[in-house]
Every structure is written in C-alpha cells, then in structure tokens.
Automatic annotation (TrEMBL):
SMART domains in the cross-refs: FCD, HTH_GNTR
Molecular-function GO terms, alphabetical: DNA binding; DNA-binding transcription factor activity
UniProt-listed PROSITE patterns: HTH_GNTR (PS50949)
Keyword field: DNA-binding, Transcription, Transcription regulation
Protein name as annotated: DNA-binding transcriptional regulator, GntR family
InterPro entries (UniProt xref): GntR_C (IPR011711), TF_FadR/GntR_C (IPR008920), Tscrpt_reg_HTH_GntR (IPR000524), WH-like_DNA-bd_sf (IPR036388), WH_DNA-bd_sf (IPR036390)
Domain of life, source organism: Bacteria
Gene3D superfamilies, per database record: GntR ligand-binding domain-like, Winged helix-like DNA-binding domain superfamily/Winged helix DNA-binding domain
All copies of domain HTH gntR-type, residue ranges: 6-73
Length: 215
C-alpha cells in the first residue's frame, strides 16, 4: 500500500511540475491542496507530498502566511544559472569527449537533431524533450552522477524562465547542438567545451533580447 501511495505522489508531482514548466501555472500561482486534489482526481495527501517536492526543487516557495506558490525566476537569477550551467556543462562536454561512453546514444540524438533541420518544425514540447535528452546524455557521458543532478536542476530552472517562448532559437540551437555532438564524437574535448560555451552564451543572449524585445 505504501508503494502505491508513493507512486501516486510521484505521479502527482510530475503532473504539477509539468504545469509549472509549460506555463499553465504562472509564477505566483497558489498551490492549494484541495484545488489540485479535485483537479487531478487524487486525495490531498499526494498533492501535499508533491508540493513538498516542488519546494525542495525550487519550483515552488512558501509565500505570505506559509501558502505555497509557484516560484519566479528573476533575470538576475537566470543569468547566474546560465553562468553556472556554462561552467558545469562545458566541463561535461569536455569529459564526454574524453570518455566516449554511450557513443551510440549521442549518435542517435544527432540524427534526431539533424531531422529537425530537414523536416517540419517540432512542437515546443518535442523540441524541449530532445534538448533535455541531449544535455543529460552529455552529462551521463561525463561519468558523474553529481554533475547530472546539478545540470538537471539548473536546466529545469532555465525552462521555468523561457517556457519555450523563444522560437527563433530553434534552428540556431540545432546547429549548435550538432557542433557539440560532432566535437564529442571526434574525441575533441576542447572543441566540445568551446561549442557548449558558445551554445549557452547564445541562449543567454536570446533570453535577454526576448525580455527587452518580446515581439
């Protein structure tokens, strides 16, 4: 029975997390146990557990009076996050190029990225999923569990900020991803790190441009 409750709690967490990341729940939105229990068709216990997990991951915070609300990420926050991501992910790309672990996985991902350039544009959700898969695959190739956890947490916070709202990044981002992959498969660590650094610098510039020129 405990396993079933835990599974339901995890499922509730994933559903609420998805609503935050896709913008359904905006920053500052109240996370009422009763409201979400009714909406998701579960009891208040898994909702309470899910809210606790959201707070532990930084996706929610306790507001005035202790009411949980969706967290907001400021421009300063996102700039700091991207700076730390650059430090971590450049090192991950460098180590991935040296290790050569899971080489086949990243080759498959290259085919998927290249297909975007040749076919109809994917949905925002499909593109986000592929982007996450690629960055996490590189982190795994680096061979550090801690690195994977840190990158995953920071990348989630980046998604909270842009929520796929910068469509102009699709094609340039694909070319940048291909450059990273090619450097890794060529076993060129410094080139891989440089390609990752350029990619994240361009993400940073696009976010800043989107803030000041949103249309």
């Amino acid at each position: 029975m405990a396993d079933a409750v835990q599974t339901l709690g995890d499922s509730t967490f994933e559903r609420m997390k998805a609503m935050i990341l896709d913008g359904t729940l905006e920053p500052g939105a109240r996370l009422s146990e009763k409201k979400f229990a009714d909406h998701l068709g579960v009891s208040r216990t898994p909702v309470r557990e899910a809210i606790g997990q959201l707070i532990s991951e930084g996706l929610a915070v306790r507001g005035a009076g202790g009411t949980p609300v969706v967290n907001s990420v400021s421009l300063g926050d996102i700039m700091e996050i991207l700076h730390v991501r650059s430090l971590l992910e450049c090192e991950a790309a460098r180590k991935a190029a040296i290790s050569g672990q899971s080489d086949e996985e990243i080759k498959v991902l290259r085919v998927e990225v290249a297909a975007i350039l040749e076919g109809p544009p994917p949905s925002a959700a499909e593109h986000t999923a592929l982007d996450m898969k690629l960055h996490f695959a590189i982190a795994r190739m680096a061979g550090s569990k801690l690195l994977i956890e840190l990158i995953e947490g920071l990348k989630t916070k980046t998604r909270m900020y842009d929520q796929g709202s910068i469509p102009d990044r699709l094609i340039p981002g694909c070319h940048e991803h291909l450059a990273i992959i090619d450097a890794i498969t060529a076993k060129a660590p410094e080139q891989a790190a440089a390609a990752m650094k350029e990619h994240l610098a361009n993400v940073r510039a696009a976010i800043i441009a989107h803030i000041y020129h949103p249309f």
